[in-house]
Amino acid sequence: MPSPIISLQNVSKLYGFGDATTIALDEVSLNIGAGEFVGVMGPSGCGKSTLMNIIGLLDRPTHGEYNLRRRSVARLRAGQRAKARRDTVGFIFQSSNLLPRMTVLENVALPLAYKGLTLGRRLRQAENMLERVGLQDRQYYYPPQLSGGQIQSAAIARALVNDPDIIIADEPTGNLDSESSRLVMELLSEVHKTGRTILFVTHNPELTRYATRVVYMHDGSIIHDEPTSLGEVAATARRVMYSIPETTEEDDLAGVSIIMHTMPSAEHKLEAPKPKAAKKKRTTKKAKRSRA
């Protein structure tokens, strides 16, 4: 079996000290081969983003060993880490992190500045990348002028412009509607077909259809790791979607429909009769006036 491109052995990440210590990662071991499309799932605060930051060399593990392309990188100096990150990893974030006062073309070309390329060459490479993601007609727009899906497509172009081996996408569809989410995941799927290794964090079980493998985290640990078939929701993710395995999406929607029809409307709630206690109080005063 070929050596994994990413290998973590008993990696832990701790924040704080003493009684205030928080364990973000708890002795995580994970091997990822070249060309895998790995989804990472788990509840908020389970350590998904911390794991991505360590794999992407944005953070250091407190304990454990991390080998990237068979090279130990856990204890690299800052300059060495920056170079390894620049040459190996492309990032896509939930908020895209595009600079609003730079054009889409300038945003995509920005990572190339750290390679010392001339401005003309940077812009040509960025233009070619924008064409690949279908944004060649938006290259002179500014990020606020784009839709959510277009912004993330530009972020993908920026992540690819350095020709990295690994793409890390941390909730890339978290702020998008279903149509834009599909656009972004289809783009990542096309990138995966070029042989790149992709890791993406998601809360949406439906997006595991694009993965070849899904890793599940809880309380800083990996609790389950399963291979998946492209085009199918991962088995464990499906159980997250439907507590009873036999339940279908149609049943789920039908149940929602019934609930909506049986619930009283907002208008009906507003026109509800006043409490009986208030009615009794008025009756009592009326009775007193009558006796008087």
Compute the separation of the termini in Å: 100 Å
Secondary-structure element order, as H and E? EEEHEEHEHHHEHEEEHHHH
Task: Name the poorly predicted regions.
Answer: 243-247, 255-274, 283-290
Radius of gyration: 26 Å
Q: Widest sheet: strand order?
A: 6-7-8-3-9-10
Bulk shape:
globular
Average predicted local confidence, pLDDT: 83
Proportion of residues in β-strands: 15-25%
Structure, explained:
With 292 residues, the protein is of the alpha/beta class. It has a single domain, classed as Rossmann fold. Helix content is 39%, strand content 21%. It contains ten helices and ten strands. The protein has helices at 48-55, 78-88, 104-113, 119-132, 148-160, 178-192, 235-241, 249-262, 266-270, 276-291, and strands spanning 6-15, 22-32, 37-41, 63-68, 71-72, 89-93, 166-170, 197-201, 213-218, 221-227. The strands form two sheets. It has a six-stranded mixed sheet with strand order 6-7-8-3-9-10, sandwiched between helices. A hairpin with a 6-residue loop joins strand 1 (6-15) and strand 2. The protein is globular. It starts with 5 loop residues before the first strand and ends with a helix. The relative contact order is 0.14. Mean pLDDT is 83; it is low at 243-247, 255-274 and 283-290.
